[in-house]
Design goal:
5 helices; six-stranded antiparallel beta sheet; alpha+beta
């Protein structure tokens, strides 16, 4: 690899000290490196975290400093670029950002000498419909959560698969996740852990008001629809759809979100031989 772009996190990397060191190291080794320092979203911007238009099309690797959260946000912004991401964790061990601050230079050496592998991670595409008209469309690498909004009471969620009614949950919310997202919010809600190499869609109810409710695993080709149902006495309920814990869209009774596998994948660069199971074991032993 010869051409790099750095996406920094101003909170995790104060004054961009580490980012500057990485850029200097790459340039001293004859590589091109652009560093994006403005990590906040501008008013009325179409992106969430990083302006993809500022990333050159011939970039071969996007280095993301921060952690899994930063990488998730970056992945959504640059998905149309189809450029592999390499995460450097500025905190604790992550599932996506595998390199810590103490291993940066050996990791950069491996990138420059093309000693790495690339993992493809499926993403979700979600479209919110209001009165049968498209309101918002977005993508998620981890999950799309449809939850209640407002007073602390359960909401009825009507679920459909490929246009056929599946069931109704009375719950705090519904988590629809990728295998990558199975170790996130879905796991805390009792969902199963799925290898990130798999291709499937996972639906997990959030605090359901029934004793026999379980997560359901669907084919990656299935189309999941979640509709906000009526409240008590046929009152209007209020909900919200959230993409990777970032972008949120308000919903009311009758509104629905249609979730499918995205046509785009996120490509994650791996340079270690540490397997997903090893990372999982270490995370679990430290929890």
């Amino acid at each position: 690899m010869d051409k790099f772009t750095i996406i920094a996190n101003s909170v995790k990397d104060r004054n961009f000290v580490v980012s500057h060191r990485i850029a200097e190291y790459l340039r001293n080794n004859g590589k091109e490196c652009l560093m994006l320092q403005d990590t906040g979203e501008e008013q009325n911007a179409s992106y969430h975290y990083t302006d993809p238009d500022r990333i050159p099309d011939d970039t071969q690797c996007i280095i993301v400093l921060g952690g899994d959260g930063t990488l998730l946000q970056a992945a959504r912004d640059v998905v149309d670029k189809d450029i592999p991401l390499f995460g450097i964790n500025m905190g604790t061990l992550g599932y996506l950002a595998e390199i810590d601050q103490h291993s940066i230079y050996p990791a950069l050496d491996r990138l420059m000498s093309d000693r790495y592998t690339i993992e493809r991670r499926m993403m979700l595409s979600g479209t919110v419909y209001k009165n049968d008209k498209v309101a918002v469309s977005d993508v998620a690498l981890n999950d799309i959560v449809i939850g209640r909004e407002g007073p602390l009471r359960v909401v009825r969620f009507n679920n459909y698969v490929n246009g056929t009614f599946l069931n109704s949950y009375k719950a705090d919310g519904i988590i629809v996740s990728t295998p990558t997202g199975s170790t996130g919010y879905s796991l805390s809600a009792g969902g199963p852990i799925i290898s990130p190499a798999a291709s499937m869609i996972l639906m997990t109810p959030l605090a359901p008001h029934t004793l026999n409710t379980r997560s359901i695993v669907f084919s990656p080709d299935d189309r999941i629809t979640v509709e906000i149902g009526e409240g008590r006495d046929q009152n209007q309920e209020h909900g919200m759809a959230s993409f990777d814990g970032d972008t949120s869209v308000s919903m009311v009774t009758g509104d629905r979100i249609v979730i499918t596998r995205s046509k785009k994948d996120t490509r994650i660069i791996k340079i270690n031989n540490i397997s997903f199971l090893e990372t999982l074991r270490e995370k679990m032993s430290n929890s």
